[in-house]
Structure formats: structure tokens, C-alpha cells
Design brief:
disordered N terminus, elongated, six-stranded mixed sheet, 19 helices
């Protein structure tokens, strides 16, 4: 059958889903699998459904489809398919080896290239949750009926094959899933599952022994002896398999075993590498979709509007007073691209850790990355004092837990009585975060309640800067006079700082009290200031803080 004629509909498997752009697909799926085939393409193109092209079947396409050119021959057939995709307003995915046949002027549909070393099933496992929101009919269960992306079912299936309790971990040694029979493992394994993270001493030991370096250089399972000391309860050996997609390390699977596995089981373990990679890619894609959805909902509820309560309910926030916490890294606008990439990865880790921390200390709390800030929305317990320092304590506890591994700073808002007040609370948290980020401020946690004076001065500084204001009036006359003599401004500052105590003020300047009184008299004569007027004293103190900090 000829491909590309509208009167002869080609057959396909169609998975309808929510609208999503090609740029978001590249961002969420990662560039390990896909890349733009040509420069200057419209990556803001929206796609509405996933189509796995099959010339032997006949199913109508969705509007604006994302078409996987499975089994389509390079050349005339692929060009015709590209033209049809363009007419539908969709986009096309082809193998890298076929890209050269699409360089003609008739190629008007955006094209993404799948690496030649990657499989279509691997790609479909990643794209289905992105485009469809869940695993669709395009995906087969590649391991004993295990749904793609269900890592707990996968761990149980591997545990049956190896006859040993199993954990699935990401490349940062976070426990993503675990099998049954963990009671057969050692205390170190139990601790890792409870904390959802392998203990730092265990990862340090494995690093020092070169286990991770070996793991990421081979596709064979490794047998790992426990440390001789058995420190931290690591007393059982492990068998570990590194999981990768192309050159990207996705994670690893660890089995706690009493001794070396048989050759047959080691071979069976090795053969699971590709299958586990598909599951991890699908899990990552699902996690990216969920993270994006939570981020979008969090941004919506913090922006406010008539649907604030509905959006808050979708986030799972109860109808109670709430706090907003804003977490970020110190400013790094001048960092090179490599370091900016590290910052982005660090923000994702902080967001995940902060979400877990808030959910642990306050059920119903939610955290998500919005731009370059992680916002946490924390409902207060029903009987909580709205004037307590609960938000500051939660923030400081989180920073204590992440320790010096992260330079994160946190801003805390005042209490928002309901979802409609969250936009104001976000503005407060943003201002407190800016104060925490400033070079002059030493605290890593700042709140609108505990740092009200500092925030007021920061905002007043912004105001005078925006209006181009500077010194004027009596204080300006003193500064001008001091350019010749140099003691009137320090005298006035000392007197104000010591609340009119001449003895203490003169001691701070190391001059005799009589000398100080004479100089203070000269201050009044030159400037025309009435030091008995409390309004003038307040004005002078503010001008010192705003214009003459040093």
C-alpha cells in the first residue's frame, strides 16, 4: 500500500492523551533517547496523542499526533509519512539512521531522532506516560506480566528469579522500590528501606572500595562482599547489576544474598538489564509528569484566582490556615553552564527531599519546584497557634537534616488564613527568601515574623533606590562639613546609637565627655537639627541605615 495518500488511511496504534509540547517531551524524556533532528524546528508544537505507525493496521489518527515511524523504510515511504504528519499538524520520530532521507524541502513536520542504539519499546515506555498520562496499549509488560514502570512489582519479580530480597535504587543510592522478604536481609538493608536512602557510610565504603566504578564500567552483575568490620549492620554480601540506557547510568538493582549466586542465576540477572532499563525510564517519565503536574498546580494556587480552593483541593491541601516556605540556592547568575546544570539537578534533589520532609512532619503539606524556587505549602494543625514559630522550626530542621551538603536558604511567610490568601503569603516568603540570600544576612532561614525590621529596611532601600533618593537636608550639610573637619557625622551617629548617653557615646569614640559635648553642640549649629525632636531623631536614624551603613 502506498503511504501518504489521505484516501488510503494508514493503520496505527493510537493513544490519546493531554496536550504537550515537543520541548517538554525532550525535557522530561531526557536527551539520552531523543534529540531534535534539525536545527530551527518548532519545538513549541503541541501534540495530542501518541501514534505507533503500523502499515498493516488501519486506525484513525488523533489530531496533532506524535508519530513513531516504526518499521518505515527510509526514503520515499518516510518522506510521504512526514508529509502526512505535517498535514495533521503533528510531529514525527524516526531513527537517527533515517534522518538523512528527510533533508528535502518537503519535510515540514518537526522531527525528533531516536538514537540507533535505542529501541522503540524503550522509547514507547518513556513517551506513553508523558503523552498519555499513564501507560497505554502501546506498552507490553516485558517481565512476567509486570506493568511497565511498576518498580515494586519489578522488584518482586526479580526477587523470585534470584531467590533473594531486592532493592531498586537510582544513581544517587536512593531506594526507589523493594521486594518482599526483606526480613531475610541485614540491618543495613532494613535501615536503607526505612530511610529510602542507603546510608552515607555504606555508599562511602562502596566508593572507597571502587564498587561503583566497577559497576558503571561493566554490564555484568558484581558480587560484593560486606566490609570486614560489618559496620552499620552491613553483614550480608550483595549482588548488584548496573542499569543503563545507552551511556546514561539510570540506577542499579541490589540483591542481599548469603553467598555467590549460581552461574545460571547470574546469567538470568544479567539478561534483565534491558528490561529494568525500560522500567526505570518509564518510572522516571512518570515521575517527571507528576512533578510537572504538582509544579503547575502549586504555581496556580500561589498565583491565586477564583479557583484557588479547587486547585488547593487537587493538591490535597486541607481547608485550614497555611504557611508558605520558599527554598532556593544562593544567587549564581554568573556561573558557567556546567555549574548551572549542577544547580538545576541540586534543586530537583532539594525539591524531592523538601517534599518528603514536609510530608513527614506535617501531613497534607505539599512542595514543588516553580522556576528556580521550591515552594512548600504547609497547613497548620487545627489547634496550632498561628503566631508560633512553627514554620521557622520546620525550615531549620530541614536544613539541619541536609547539613552542609546543600547551601539552600529558606524564606517563611506569615500565616495565610485560606487558599485565597496564598498569593500574599508567597510574596512574603519571596521577600524573606531574598533577605536570606543577601550577602549581608547571615541567617539561612528568614521569616516575615522574626525578621520584620530587616525586611522593612530592605524594602525602604529598594524604594529610595527606585526613586533615586540620596542624602539631603541637615545630614547632607554635616557630611559636607566633615569633608573639611571629619568629626561631626561620627559624633551624631554615636549619640543616636547610644540613645543620647553622652558618657557612653564619648567612650565609643575614645574622646573626653567635654570634647564630645562640644562636638555635639557643633552638630546642632552646623545642621540646624533639634536633637530634642523625636521625629528628627527618627529621620536621622533612618537616613544613617539607608544611606550610610558603613
Amino acid at each position: 500500500m502506498a503511504v501518504g495518500h489521505p484516501e488510503q488511511p494508514e493503520a496505527s496504534v493510537v493513544v490519546d492523551g493531554p496536550s504537550i509540547t515537543l520541548a517538554r517531551i525532550l525535557e522530561d524524556a531526557g536527551h539520552t533517547l531523543l534529540r531534535p533532528a534539525f536545527d530551527g524546528q518548532d519545538l513549541d508544537r503541541i501534540v495530542d496523542g501518541l501514534v505507533i505507525f503500523d502499515p498493516a493496521d488501519q486506525v484513525a489518527w488523533s489530531r496533532r499526533p506524535l508519530v513513531l515511524a516504526v518499521g518505515v523504510q527510509a526514503g520515499e515511504q518516510l518522506t510521504a509519512l512526514s508529509e502526512r504528519v505535517a498535514r495533521q499538524g503533528g510531529a514525527l520520530i524516526v531513527h537517527e539512521s533515517a534522518v538523512a532521507s528527510l533533508t528535502g524541502p518537503r519535510t515540514v513536520a518537526p522531527v525528533l531522532a531516536l538514537g540507533n542504539e535505542n529501541s522503540w519499546i524503550q522509547l514507547a515506555a518513556t513517551l506513553a506516560p508523558l503523552v498519555n498520562g499513564s501507560s497505554g496499549p502501546a506498552l507490553a509488560a516485558p517481565l512476567g506480566g509486570v506493568p511497565t514502570g511498576d518498580l515494586f512489582a519489578l522488584a518482586n519479580a526479580i526477587a523470585e528469579i534470584l531467590d533473594a530480597p531486592v532493592t531498586v535504587e537510582d544513581r544517587d543510592s536512593r531506594v526507589l522500590a523493594f521486594s518482599i522478604r526483606q526480613e531475610e536481609a541485614d540491618p543495613s538493608r532494613i535501615g536503607a528501606i526505612l530511610n529510602r536512602q542507603v546510608t552515607p557510610w555504606a555508599t562511602q565504603d562502596l566508593t572507597e572500595r571502587g564498587i561503583f566504578r566497577q559497576l558503571y564500567r561493566t554490564q555484568e552483575p558484581l558480587f560484593v562482599d560486606p566490609p570486614e568490620s560489618g559496620y552499620g549492620g552491613f553483614t550480608m554480601p550483595r549482588v548488584v547489576l548496573g542499569i543503563r540506557a545507552d551511556d546514561e547510568i539510570l540506577g542499579s538493582v541490589w540483591a542481599a544474598v548469603p553467598g555467590p549466586l549460581s552461574d545460571e542465576r547470574m546469567q538470568a540477572f544479567r539478561e534483565l538489564q534491558g528490561t529494568v532499563a525500560v522500567h526505570l525510564l518509564s518510572h522516571r517519565a512518570n515521575a517527571n509528569v507528576e512533578r510537572r503536574m504538582r509544579s503547575d498546580l502549586t504555581a496556580q494556587v500561589l498565583a491565586g484566582g477564583p479557583e484557588a480552593e479547587e486547585v488547593a483541593a487537587r493538591l490535597g491541601l486541607p481547608r485550614r490556615p497555611m504557611l508558605v516556605l520558599a527554598v532556593a540556592l544562593p544567587d549564581g547568575e554568573d556561573e558557567p553552564a556546567r555549574l548551572r546544570g549542577d544547580r538545576a539537578a541540586e534543586l530537583l534533589r532539594i525539591g524531592d527531599a523538601f517534599d518528603m520532609h514536609l510530608g513527614t512532619v506535617q501531613p497534607g503539606a505539599s512542595a514543588a519546584l516553580v522556576g528556580d524556587i521550591v515552594y512548600g505549602i504547609v497547613p497548620l494543625p487545627p489547634a496550632a497557634d498561628p503566631h508560633s514559630d512553627r514554620g521557622q522550626r520546620m525550615a531549620k530542621d530541614f536544613l539541619a537534616r541536609v547539613g552542609r551538603r546543600s547551601a539552600a536558604v529558606i524564606g517563611v511567610s506569615a500565616v495565610a488564613p485560606d487558599a485565597y490568601a496564598l498569593p500574599r503569603a508567597r510574596e512574603e516568603a519571596d521577600r524573606a527568601l531574598r533577605l536570606a540570600r543577601s550577602a549581608q544576612q547571615g541567617d539561612r532561614v528568614c521569616s516575615t515574623v522574626e525578621h520584620a525590621y530587616e525586611l522593612l529596611m530592605m524594602e525602604m532601600t529598594d524604594l529610595v533606590s527606585a526613586r533615586g533618593m540620596g542624602l539631603s537636608g541637615p545630614l547632607a550639610r554635616l557630611v559636607e562639613q566633615d569633608e573639611r573637619h571629619g568629626y561631626l557625622v561620627p559624633t551624631l551617629r554615636a549619640w543616636l546609637d547610644h540613645f543620647g548617653d553622652n558618657i557612653a557615646a564619648s567612650a565609643s569614640l575614645h574622646v573626653h565627655p567635654n570634647t564630645f559635648r562640644y562636638r555635639l553642640k557643633r552638630v546642632a549649629e552646623v545642621s540646624g537639627i533639634s536633637l530634642d525632636n523625636h521625629d528628627e531623631r527618627l529621620s536621622l536614624m533612618l537616613q544613617f541605615r539607608l544611606f550610610m551603613r558603613s
